[in-house]
Design a protein that fits this description.
Length: 451
């Protein structure tokens, strides 16, 4: 934790014109001073940029600009120095090597952000937002990450914890200080509305966040159907690229073919699968097995059927297999005479043609609609952003539901406090809060028990 660490902070070394080598820690300034030609560097004011040369003894390594940032107003709340050098692979690595040989330690992955978290500059959720922002591929992903990074998502959780802390504080005062008459007396009747409000809000956050995960990770979409119905043609049309081989020969696709597009800020991860049918061909059978596995793993399935043919046995089996799954039916070849009968099918149906590019936009819109992601660009996107956060929120929701049930069954208030505390702590884990000390501080700050 107290080590001075160094690492190359830019990606694709040797590709860009400039690279940045970052140093953070108590000895950051003195270590850089050993290899930097600017004699006024170490005595300079914070947040200033200095021109000079990085030197290895008497040999010049590179002409650089060095930014000096003194604690605590830095990313890690430690002294930080960033060396802006030319983008060559050899030059950048030589500068890092000199820093390490003069006392710095090579930083572990994510260690600068870890220092920022441990030093209290950001909480755990904000730290995860940093990673999400770096990995963002769309404007919506970036917007969602920024809400985590700037603390907007933290406010959602903190507000709920505040309500729980108020309940816990009042309960503990009622129990430990019965003579303290000025404080609200917690009873079955006044605890129920507060718990119900917390439950409703937490349930909303979880449901919206589960959709938000789709913004972050993209929607995994399996394209399935029997052989020769146009699955590969549909993939190629959707991604506007000849990714999958298309022929009139049944069973051409024998392995998984993937493609990706960004549609209205949402990433669609398409998986074209082998045609599903009974086969004695060993290789094709493996492809069919993988197709079924991909269909079961996908967030949504597109079942491709030929509108000019009656339903076959394989079609009917596939319709049965998607009955309880999120799925869309794409009726291909609408430019031919219609012979298919799809009565009593309780799934969205898009009619189109991959040959004539008909129904493709309608299919994309239906995918968005199925996940309630319409007009996401106009929403605030203040969601929990990963499975860890959502799973902890779900545990907290379960705790709150249990408290409500116990309250309705006349369980004593002091017993209810146990589950309320559990929910409060689980939400604290979402943002990396410490529990006991925070609660004690909350009680004394609110009720002035020490006066």
């Amino acid at each position: 934790m107290n080590d001075t660490i160094a690492a190359i902070s830019t990606n694709n070394i040797g590709v860009g014109a400039i690279n940045i080598v970052r140093v953070s820690g108590e000895d950051a300034i003195s270590i850089v001073e050993k290899i930097f030609s600017n004699k006024n560097f170490s005595s300079a004011e914070s947040h200033t940029i200095h021109y000079g040369f990085i030197k290895d003894g008497n040999n010049v390594v590179d002409e650089v600009l060095v930014m000096l940032m003194r604690a605590p107003k830095t990313y890690t709340m430690e002294d930080v120095v960033e060396i802006n050098c030319h983008g060559g692979y050899a030059t950048t690595n030589k500068i890092l090597e000199l820093l390490l040989s003069n006392g710095a330690r090579l930083a572990e992955p994510g260690e600068f952000t870890k220092k920022a978290y441990l030093n209290g500059r950001i909480n755990l959720m904000e730290a995860e937002g940093v990673e999400d922002l770096i990995e963002a591929k769309t404007d919506l992903q970036s917007k969602m990450a920024l809400n985590s990074l700037n603390g907007e998502t933290t406010k959602l959780i903190s507000n709920l914890r505040e309500k729980m802390a108020q309940l816990l504080s009042n309960i503990e005062v009622n129990i430990d200080y019965p003579e303290y008459q000025d404080e609200l007396q917690i009873t079955k009747s006044n605890i129920r509305p507060v718990l119900s409000d917390i439950k409703i809000e937490l349930d909303r956050i979880i449901k919206e966040s589960e959709n938000g995960i789709l913004i972050k990770n993209g929607i995994n979409i399996a394209i399935v159907g029997r052989p020769n119905v146009g699955k590969s043609s549909l993939l190629n049309t959707l991604i506007e690229e000849d990714k999958a081989i298309v022929t009139d020969i049944s069973g051409t696709t024998r392995d998984i073919v993937e493609g990706q597009i960004n549609y209205k800020g949402i990433v669609f991860n398409f998986i074209d699968t082998a045609g599903i049918r009974e086969t004695s061909d060993v290789v094709e059978a493996i492809g069919v097995k993988k197709s079924i596995e991909e269909m079961n793993k996908a967030d949504i399935t597109i079942l491709v059927l030929n509108s000019n043919e009656k339903l076959t046995k394989e079609d009917k089996e596939l319709l049965e297999s998607i009955k309880d799954k999120k799925a869309i039916i794409f009726l291909n070849k609408n430019d031919l005479d219609k012979n298919i009968d799809l009565d009593n099918i309780n799934k969205p149906i898009i009619i189109g043609s991959t040959r004539n590019n008909v129904g493709i936009n309608e299919l994309k819109e239906e995918i968005i609609k199925e996940f309630n992601l319409i007009d996401m660009g106009s929403k605030d996107l203040t969601y929990l952003s990963n499975a860890r956060q959502i799973s902890l929120a779900k545990v907290a929701l379960k705790d709150i539901k249990h408290v409500i049930e116990e309250n309705d069954n006349d369980i004593p208030v002091d017993m209810l406090a146990i589950d309320i505390r559990e929910a409060w702590e689980n939400l604290g884990k979402v943002i990396g809060k410490y529990y006991e000390d925070e609660l004690v501080d909350n009680i004394f700050a609110r009720f002035c028990l020490g006066k």
